[in-house]
Amino acid sequence: MKDITAEKDLVSYCGLYCGACKSYLKEKCPGCRIDGKYKKCKMRPCCLEHEYQSCADCTEFPNVADCGIYSNRFWDIMEFFFRTQRSACIDMIKRVGYQDFAEHMAENKLVVLKRGRRRETG
Questions:
Q1: CA distances from 79 to 33, 74, 75, 101, 114 (A)
Q2: How would you label 36-63 residue by residue, b for 16+ Cβ within 10 Å and e otherwise?
Q3: Distance of CA 29 to the CA centre of its chain
Q4: In 3D, which of 12, 107, 20 has the Cα closest to residue 56?
Q5: Contact call for residues 70 and 14 (beta carbons, < 8 A)
Q6: How far is residue 45's CA from residue 115's CA, in Å, rounded to a whole number?
Q7: pLDDT tens, position by position, 20-42
Q8: What is the pTM of this model?
């Protein structure tokens, strides 16, 4: 099993941190940015087309929740059920940058931020 490390290349297109994901740590998945197996992901093709590292780089939607590709019923239900908020990850990336975000997520062993926890790092 891999150790949790802080690597900006392990930040997924939607802002999740693959470096703390159980599938990644058990070497069952190389990470969203590398794999692309999850065909239902709409953010990956959009980010690749616009040459974004993640949705945090999007200039069309300053608030990622306004993007129809990013926001959908499936994630709304998942976030409600697990009390998480992917958009908080995108907001944090915008504030502190990819490396500091990866360090925060690795240090706290998080894949996604919990709802209501929008922290600064450093």
A1: 21, 9, 6, 20, 9
A2: eeeeebebbebbeeeeeebbbebeeeee
A3: 15
A4: 12
A5: yes
A6: 27
A7: 999 999 998 888 877 666 667 88
A8: 0.84
